[in-house]
Amino acid sequence: MTIIQLEYLLAVANYGSFSAAAEKCFVTQPSLSMQVKNLEEELGLVLLDRTRKPVVPTNAGEAVLKQARETVKSFDAIREIVANLKNDISGVLRLGVIPTIAPYLLHRLIPNFTKKYPKVDLHIREMMNRDIIRALRHDMLDAAIMTGGTIPDDIQEEELFNDRFYVYVSPDHPLSQRHNIRIEEIDPRRLLLLSEGNCLRDQVLELCMLRKETIRQYTFDCNSIETLMRIVDNTPNSLTVVPEMVSNFIDDPHRSQLKILAKGAVSRKISIAVRRTYAKQSLITALKESILSVTNK
Questions:
Q1: Which tens digits make up the pLDDT trace of 109-127?
Q2: What is the pLDDT of residues 23-39, one digit of tens each?
């Protein structure tokens, strides 16, 4: 039994396919399949049900996989200890970022991070919250930047900073001349929201104490805060809620439409989510420091 065999077994279980696992492990499919088969023969157990699409672990495979994850984590930890002793920040970091953070952070984070850590191979994907959680659980991502409170217990979370909420109103809105707006003054019939699946949508509903079935003038599916703001600009008496990081990208002609929420729990927490078996803490620390340096938090 070798670490390579365990890593290949985990890859097949994570991706549900020998071909996909081989691609991610940068080996040929026959080579990967042979290594997994050799492991099964050595253990005298069938670990993967190859008749299923996607391929799934057998009952015996589930038990072996549980220990394999711990074994590979311990093996990676040795490399991490050596890297820390050498002060060497390197390796692959697969990072997911939700759509309500990516446009306002990545353009500052990427140049800063890649310049400071040139030995790190950074792979970034913009993904919805539910897809990030699934990818973390299946070892398809190493870490993610997302909002706190939306991360399940089996994923490790490290808080970065608070991102305050503001109200963005149309120019002719009755509240447009106000500097501050109270939550109870928001008319839910005029409130524009992101589409289902966006955690910001759920946070705004909770913030305003609204039910998902609240009647509105009209609804549409939208995954872009920028699109919502442009619709507010041109729709009488409408408004939406935006996070603070968006406020830095509002031009001067529209800045007066941005209003402070006067009281209450009016912010979201920005966090780094990491799968609990991830061993390269030095990379996560480097990522955290880079994020905080470009957000000035």
A1: 999 999 999 989 899 999 9
A2: 888 899 999 999 999 99
Secondary structure class of 91 (helix, strand, coil): strand
pLDDT in tens, 250-280: 999 999 999 988 766 688 999 999 976 666 7
Query: Alpha carbon 99 to chain centroid distance?
Result: 9
Q: What is the pLDDT of residue 217?
A: 55
Domains plus CATH for the chain?
3-85 (1.10.10.10), 91-161+269-295 (3.40.190.10), 166-263 (3.40.190.10)
Can you tell me the distance from the alpha carbon of 243 to that of 210, in angstroms, rounded to the nearest whole number?
A: 18
CB atoms under 10 Å from CB of 48, counted, come to 21
- Identify any residues that bridge with 4 across adjacent strands, giving them in sequence order: none
Contacts of 212 (CB under 8 A, 6+ apart): 205
Spatial separation of the C-alpha atoms in residues 168 and 24, rounded to whole Å: 43
Q: Are 272 and 160 in contact (CB under 8 A)?
A: yes
Can you tell me the distance from the alpha carbon of 145 to that of 270, in angstroms, rounded to the nearest whole number? 7
Q: Which of 232, 212, 176, 172 minimizes the C-alpha distance to 204?
A: 212
CB within 8 Å of 230: residues ≥ 6 apart: none
H/E run at residue 207: helix 199-207
d(CA 134, CA 15): 11
